[in-house]
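Now for a specimen:

…
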Amino acid sequence: MLLIRPVLDVVKSLPVLIGTVILGRGNGWEWFGLGVTALTVFVGVSHVLTSRYRIADGQVEWTTGLLLRKHRAIPLDRVRTVDVTSEPKHRLFSLSAVRIGTGRHSPAQGANGDQLVLDAVSRTEADRLRTVLLHRKEITTEAEAPPPEQVVAEVDRRWVRYAPFTLSGLAVVGAIFAAVWHFAHQLDIAPENVGPLRDLMDDLADTAVWLIVVVAAVALLVVVSLLSVGGYVLSFWNFKLTRETEGTLHVRRGLITTRSVSIEEERLRGVEVKDPLPLRIAGGARLTAIVGGLREGKGGDKGGGLLLPPAPVGRVHEVAAEVLRENFDPATVPLNRHPRRALTRRLTRAAGGVLILAAALFGLAWIDFLPSWMWQVALGLVPLAALVGWDRYRNLGHAIVGRYLVSRSGSLARTTVAIRREGLTGVVVSRSFFQRRAGLITVTAPIAAGKGGYRVVDVGESAGLAMAEQAAPGLLTPFLRREVQR
C-alpha cells in the first residue's frame, strides 16, 4: 500500500495541481498546488503506516492516524457480513480489502458508517478473517482447510444473452454523452461545430429523416448491446453462490475487480426477484438478498446482496427456493388480487399523466412556441400508457405463505419480494385522499434490512388490515374498530 496509496493520492490531486500550475504561472500559485499534493500524499502514507487491527476480547479493533488518532471497535456478535473486494490496485500485489458489516445504518456516519474497512490485507488473511468473524473459528495453520461448501448456483456463460436487456449499456452511453457534452460546453466548444461532426451533419442534411432515425437506432442498439455484454462479463465472470456448513451464503464474482461477499443465513430476511420489462420479455430475471449490513450503493449489485445475475427465470426461481430453504418458490405462489378500484387508479395515473403532457404541449403549440407534431405524438402515447397501467394492475398481488409475506408490484420494473414475518419491526398503514375515496390503503412492512420497508400498494381496506394482522399478529389489534352484529 505504500506504493499504491501515493499514486492514488496524486491522481486525486491532479485537478488542483493542474489548475494552480496553469492559472498561477508566474505568481507562485503553482507552489500552493504542489504543497496541497504533498500534504495529501503525506496523510495517505501516514494512514498506511499507522493502521493496526486485532481480534481480541470478543471484538475486532482498528486504529489509525498520526496527528488525529482514530479507534473503532465492533463486538463480534454484531458482525453480519464480510465483504472481500480485490480491485486492480489490490490484485497487483495479491491484496484484498475487507469490509465488516454490522447491519446498523446511521445517516450521520455516512455510507460507510456501519462498516469497518481493512484496506488492505493479504488474500490469505482476508480468507482467515472471513472465517474467524463469521464462524467464530480460528485458523491457526495454513494447512487447515476452509469450511466445506455446497454449490447453490454458478453462472452459465450462455446467460450473457440477457445482458442487452438489462439496459445497463444505455445508462453508460447516456452518462458518457452527457459528460462529453457538458465538458465541451464548459470549454466553450460547440460539438456540432467540430470538423468531423460538422461534415457528418452536412452529409445528413440531404438524407431522409426516417432513414436517419433507423440508422441511429440500429447503431445505438449495437453500442448498447456491446457495452451491456462487456459489463456483464466484467461484473459476473466466474460467479458462484455457495452455502457453507456453518450456515453462511458465500458469493464470488468479478473479472478485473473480484468480490467475495459472505452472508449469515440467520440474518437473511428474505429475497427479491427483479424482472424489469425488457428482461421479462427475454425470459430472464435476477435475484437479490434482503439482508442488513451490506455496503450502501445504487442497486443490488453495488449493495452486495446479489444472489444471481440476470439468468433464466426458471433458474432464478429454483435458487430463490434453495436460498430460503423452503419447498415453495416465492415468485410463483398464487397471490391475492387487488380490487378493481386499484385498476382505475393505475389507468388514471398512467394515462392521465400523458394527457396532461399532451395538453401542455398543445398549449405551447397554439402560441407557436413548439411544433404541433409534439402534442400529437404525446397524444398517440395514451394507449401505450393505458396498457402499462393495466399491466401494473395485473402484477399487483400479495399473500401470506408460511412464515413469509409475499408482495408483487410494478410493470416496467416489476419486483416480487418475500420477507420473513418474524423480521418485521412494525406495520405502517397509510392512504392518500384519493385512496380514501376508493376504499384502498397501502400497507408497508418495515424491516431492518434491504430497503428498510416493502409496500403492498392499493389493497382493499379490509383485506389489507387482515393481511397486516396476519403478518404481525396482535400488533394492530388495539387500533382496530370492529362492528358488532346485533
